[in-house]
Amino acid sequence: MKLNSKILLSTSSILAFTAESVFATGSDNDNAIIQLDKIMFELTVSRNKLGLVGFYSPEDKFYKSWGHDYEIAAKILKNRNIPVGLVNCDEHVDFCKEFGYNGSSFVSVFSDASNIYDFDEKYETKNFVQHIINKGGKDMSEFKTIEDIEKFISNSRKPVVVSYGNEGLKEKFQEIAAKNNERIVFAAIAKGGEGESMNVQDYLAVYPTGAETPIIYNGDVETLINNEDNFMNWVTFGTLPLVGELSEDNLHLYANLNVPVASFFYSDNVDKEIIMEKLESLAKEYKYRMVFLTTDAERYDSSLKNLNMKQQLPAFCIITPHDNKAYGFPQVDDEDYKKMSGRYAIDPKELENFISSFVAGEIPANEPSEIVHDEL
């Protein structure tokens, strides 16, 4: 979901309602989910610092897979006075389109009227609840000593990005933290702490979850922090594996990146073994420009069809999530594929050339018939 500039709060409509109406749930008092239209959505966002909003179609199979978990989360969060709502996109078509709805249901998080983003974790009750609770905590944690911050990093269950020193960048760093602390923890050495005495200004580091060795930014820190998109790209790439494996736990993260997603679809481990060295090499070469994944084609058995590709394995496709376009590696004729007795392989050098051509803008795209949240 990209927040459209048209989504502005209407002051007149907000004043027309009482705060209590935000938590009205209709005749079913057991249902903690608020049914929202545009006016009620605006009111809910304006009157609450945190909440969840699902954009859905009742018949969408993806919605049916998470709807019950969402309802349970709503009941839990209602006890904390945190609203959880749904917008029926069959009934509110134009409003949903303003939020990027294209037929596939999704959940968004709002932390204030101007910060609304897609929920990018597995759609389960515990994740909905924990995400919101974490979001309600501090945007950024400050420490006075290196020892304290190292202890904090070692105990964190999330990746940590740390800013050492340079008080002049603190305000911008904290501003970014307020918008992005749902998946990544932000920390800093406080003014008067060791960061200043040790003269470590202009020092940024990312610690992937469980990692002892950080990834240190070697460029100009001030320039990076003053460009939020570039900053978050650097942080995100620092916390992702070189070549990831698509799963329910990370598919929403990959689906919401603002860079191309290059996915290798395999039928067994032999397929991966043949190409993995080349994938890792390409992932290093194109780091910060695209991400690389391997995808179990049996587990996500409709993905290739949705990308307008043949069910020939292995397969390779680059997806640009921001516009739902797919760039498929050329596939062979069906008859030729049959003659290969199921042991077809993608040539590593040809794959390298394909990606080079894609980056150069020389590969034509085909519109996928449907890209949904649970399939890349």
TrEMBL record:
It is found in: Endoplasmic reticulum lumen. It comes from the Eukaryota. It catalyses: Catalyzes the rearrangement of -S-S- bonds in proteins. Gene3D superfamilies: Glutaredoxin. Its main location: endoplasmic reticulum. Keywords: Endoplasmic reticulum, Isomerase, Redox-active center, Signal. GO terms for cellular component: endoplasmic reticulum lumen. Residues 1-24 form the signal peptide. It holds the Pfam family Thioredoxin_6. One of its GO terms (molecular function) is protein disulfide isomerase activity. Belongs to the protein disulfide isomerase family. This is protein disulfide-isomerase. The lineage of its organism: Eukaryota, Fungi, Dikarya, Ascomycota, Saccharomycotina.
